[in-house]
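Hello again,

I reread your note about wanting to compare the complex against the isolated chains. To keep things tidy I'm splitting this into two emails, and this first one only covers the full assembly. Below are the input lines as submitted, including protein chains and any nucleic acid or small-molecule components. They are followed by the predicted structure of everything together. The single-chain runs will come separately.
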Amino acid sequence: MNVSFTLNGKAVSVDVDGQTPLLWVVRDVLGMKGTKFGCGKAACGACTLHVDGDAIRSCSYAVQFAEGKKVTTIEGLSTDEKIHPVQQAWMEEIVPQCGYCQPGFMMATAALLEKIPNPTDEDIDNNIANICRCGTYYRMRKAIHRAAEIQQNSNS
Amino acid sequence: MSNTENSNETPKRTFSRRKFLLRASIGAGVMIGVGYFGCNPMRRSLAGMAEEAALGYDNKFDAIAWFEVTADNDIILHSPKVEMGQGIFTGMAQLVAEELGVSIGKIKVVHASSMNRPVDPRSTGGSDTISGLWVPLRELSVKMRVMLLENASKILGVATSSLSIGDGVISGGDKSISFGEIVSQATEWNEPKKITLKSKKDFKVIGKAIPRVDLEPKVMGDPIFGIDAEMPDMHYGVIVRPPKIDTVFESADFSKAESMPGVIKVVQESDFVGVIAKSKTQANLAAQAIEVKWKTNKVWEQKDIEEIIKVGKGKPVEIQKSGSPKRILNGDDVITSEYSSPIGAHAHLEPNGAVAFVEKDKAIIKISTQVPKFTRTEVAKTLDLKEEQVEIQPTFLGGGFGRRLHTPNAMQAALLSKAVGKPVHVFFSRKDEFQHDTFRPPTHHVLKGKLGENGLIEAIEHHVSSGDVAFGSVLFPQALENVFGADVGAWRGGMIQYRAIPNFSATSWRVKLPFATSWWRSLGLLANTFAIESFIDELADKAGKDPVEFRLAQIKDDERGRRLKAVIEAAAKKGEWGKKMPEGRAQGFAASTDANTPVAQVVEVSVENNQIKVHKVTCAIDPGMAINPDGIKAQCEGAIIMGISASMFEKMEVKNGALTPTIYGAYKMARMRHAPKEIDVVILEGADKPSGVGEPPLGPIGAAIANAVFKLTGKRLRDMPFKLT
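Full-complex prediction:
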């Protein structure tokens, strides 16, 4: 079937089986490799991207449901003029180690900050449930607080 | 500004200019621009150096070259070691920048292709990259600097003594020449005979907490991993693997799969079936439609495994002995304790796989591997090609942890590609990743100890039973098994480190398991340290002594002992050992030495509703010399959290003949909420050269938590993962 949506601000149209996970359409058909495969069962969060602003685990989200929606991946998180506060904070806190799970965490964090601009530690614990094997959680927590600070400063 | 609709109309991203430079050079092994070292004299010269500098690198082909100069006058370092998060690209860039005399921003590190670039003779692992390259890589860098200066001198007609090296340019008097120009004009590269390395007091880059050099591509989500690799007209493959252990392939009916949409071919090999299709989803669907007949020799259960892993079974080898522990460890006052650890999965996020393109006389494999050389050998053998016809292009690894020291996936991808004559992208499913891991072997420990009249340990012995770690691995030839006797991986961390104890010994019992076990970050260190350091606490408790004082009193006064003592004292001091704790919290302590790096940790834990929570960890580490303090801190933080995860949550079991569970969540791991809110790392520099960092901080954490829980609840945790009920 034909599915049309916007990917990082650009209109795209693909001809695939509607049941195909959005993850594979984004990666293999549209060539955006920043969104990662981890488990295929929505259990690890490596494939997190935004659909109409919500954090979605794209390995378990059929592409047909993206019809007419706005899809944002890590490649589109920053605008052309301005690095996104989450990515800025991730740079400042030197979060990544192997780096593979990080796009999923950053996308989950960006969505969290839209809903809770200044999350507490408890908010972070309850909302950021992805898996990082290198164990960068300690720096991620600092980076999430820092991102909230950057975002609030830029809004004020 | 927040209008994302319009944002993509602006063509230039001002913040990420550096990113595109990085992309251009990191990419998929693309050489950009003009004027890089391609000339044979340079290559031969560097190859000679590599040999002379005793790097131990494979010099079968004449064109080994570590360095390349780009049109932007950047220096590319072709790293034979792979980056899996441990931060070695940054450490290596610091060594090169220091001795070349350029800023860190001018050094780009990429993974060396196995074609015409340095190939690591063994592996990236064992926490030995920086310690192993500490002298040779700096020597290569000095030679590079001297040769650049000499050629600049010839071209400019200025004496080398009047020249100085800057960021990509050499200048002297009123003249200057860029690195790129030197390379394109120089006709001879004469290897300097005598070189001098900088002394520590002159270091400007080494020892600095420089942000990791791969930070930006990793934050921006660049396509740098094996699974991201693409080739033109690429197809997707799926391998069908046995559903149980101790099982062999018999036959397969794939008539249905062959006619499914998008399917190009189904391939049957001696031990597996593979499907190649136009898309990954089509390949997956077709794989599910293949009916395979497997023959299972025995349907194994967890109790069978637990019966095997017992001290007293299998083959014992004494790996350490001092005094006469056996003679003394008799009588009623001998304290005996048992401990155990479970089967552990690697659970790294990027699944194993490869992108392969096999043609008549050559093969290209893009892959996350810790062993490019062995991957090449295996692929060449499988395809009946010569090694020099196989190019391995290593990528960044989405986690290594020892999982990528075995790469049969490269051979499988190569066979699928050969069958269709197209590039094929083949990756494990998560279920396969869990079921067909090369697991951390389960262990069983028996410790015996006896206190002397002075309240210190008079005799102690440690027995560990473990499945194989090093034995059976491509990295460890079978012939060496008899030489070594005991599995060097299984007993890592298994020796007694308090060598002022008059009588001590350690014995490793080897047993064979019916599934693959192998390297897992720090190998036996986590489990062995959990057992020994818990037992030391038991003895301290029995002796009525403070656990830290008890340890310090039994350390031998030699170099190793002094460094261990220093980290124990530093951790106790920074972690405020013995301070009054709030109600419901307690401290625990443990220490270990691994890869020549001693580590001590103080943890603060609480227990609520029978759940252990780790609030704070203070970690003192002595990596000899700190190349990058921030990188060392990151490794300590990560190892601590991985150790918390393995000690408190993780466990694989054999059920109905298969390893289970097969998905995250069911395989419980530490998440954000389980990570300590405070991790305080103290770095000591107790030597004049660097030692390992990636694995050593994983040692003490399990024992430290168990010791804190004992203090808090009186309950001694003897089995990982920890359970209070």
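For quick reference: Chain B touches chain A through 75 residues (CB under 8 Å).

B.
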